[in-house]
Amino acid sequence: MRTDRTGLALIEEAIQLLRAAPATVYALYCGGTVPFLLSLFNFFVKMSYSRSAEAECSVSAVLVTLAYAWAKGLQAFCCRELVRAYTGNVERWWKPKTMLAIWSRQIAFQPLGLFARPLAWLLVFPVIYVSAFFQNLTVLGGARQTDIRKSWELARLWPGQSCTVYGLLSLLALVVFLDLCAITYSIPFLLKALFGVESFLTRSYTWMFSPVLIIALGAGAHFIIDLLAKAIHVIRCCDGESQTTGEDLLRRLKDFQNREGVFRAP
Amino acid sequence: MNLTLQRCLIHVDREAVARCPVCRNYFCRECVTEHEQKFLCSSCLQSMAAGVKPARRNAGRFMLVIRMTIGLAIAWLFFYVIGQLLMLIPPNVHDGSYLRNLGQ
């Protein structure tokens, strides 16, 4: 367990963890997030441009809700895989009973975050605790009875580090958002300059300020940064849990024992 | 906190040798028991051993189904409100024609 780690060092370690993570992590994250993002974008477009938006709103919201529930389940499984990659723990989350327990707890508790997070942002101060609580709940899965309480306890650990991490992640999210805007806005003009493809997008600039496009780009930026945020919380949760379980020491001892010749008799 | 300076919660004349990871109190060798590679005090071990009784488990499942339904309803409400807010935005903002009007 390392409590002396700075926010920047934690982000670097999380990036290293993502680099070393197996393809399953990315497959699970994309498998959950991409369908949700597509359904969300479809919902935004329908609600903004469709003439029957009023009538379709409730049904379309149901579809987005189902996509959200799907995404939350797969994100929790993705975090279990990240925990496996970080700790080398061979706990089997893919048993149908465990998967169902994780999924049901995610569906039951994560939607509260949809309202709690914006409220926390408005009040500014509790945002690090509220966001960390819901991220920790994704990491721990929620299959055990104690996971909710533990998520809150872990969210309150090392507040200074949390503040630095959230500050840096917000800055990074802004940069990613601006990057996505630059890419999206330049594509029609690049097509025109390189291949002579003329479209309504190159004749007017007004589409760039469409609220739907801006919200969709914001959601895209959020979900790109979210995987990094999850990796950070995986590390924080594992380190926080090690305070009482001593698992990090057992892991290090096992590594030490596995090293060739350390305990070889003379 | 230094463990050697602590005293057992039950036997105050004895030095503490372990801290229970559940209740966070200090105990002497006699008052802790090893359970799944952790030293727990007797009261925490008892409450763990009592576990979840079948009747409570069924009630827990029922509660979980209710919580899931409430969770889905909350998520639906959130997206429904977002949809309603998007519908409140005037069409000239969506298609950007308000920018042309501003320019004139």
SSE pattern of chain A: HHHHHHHHHH
Strand fraction of chain A equals: under 5%
Quaternary assembly: heterodimer
Largest sheet of chain A: none
N to C succession of SSEs of chain B: EEEEHHHH
Number of domains of chain A: 1
Unreliable spans of chain B are none
The total strand number of chain B stands at: 4
User: By helix and strand content of chain B, what is the structural category?
Assistant: mainly alpha
Q: What count of structural domains of chain B?
A: 2
> What is the general shape of chain A?
globular
| Gyration radius from CA atoms of chain B, angstroms | 29 Å
What pair of chains forms the biggest interface? A-B, 39 and 29 residues
Please give a quick description of this structure:
The complex is a heterodimer of chains A (266) and B (104). Chain A is mainly α and 266 residues long. Chain A has helices spanning 7-20, 23-49, 53-87, 96-123, 127-140, 147-155, 159-195, 200-203, 211-245, 247-258.
Description:
The complex is a heterodimer of chains A (266) and B (104). Chain A has 266 residues and is mainly alpha-helical. The mean pLDDT of chain A is 83. The radius of gyration of chain A is 22 Å and the shape is globular. The two termini of chain A are 33 Å apart. Chain A contains ten helices and no strands. The longest helix of chain A has 37 residues, at 159-195. Chain A has one domain (7-240). Chain B is mainly alpha-helical. Chain B has two domains: 3-50, no CATH class; 54-92. Helix content of chain B is 53%, strand content 12%. Chain B has four helices and four strands; from the N terminus they run E-E-E-E-H-H-H-H. Chain B has helices spanning 42-50, 54-88, 91-94, 97-103; strands spanning 18-19, 26-27, 32-35, 38-41. In chain B, strands 1-2 form a two-stranded antiparallel sheet. In chain B, a hairpin with a 2-residue loop joins strand 3 and strand 4 (38-41). The radius of gyration of chain B is 29 Å and the shape is elongated. The chains are: A mainly alpha (266), B mainly alpha (104).
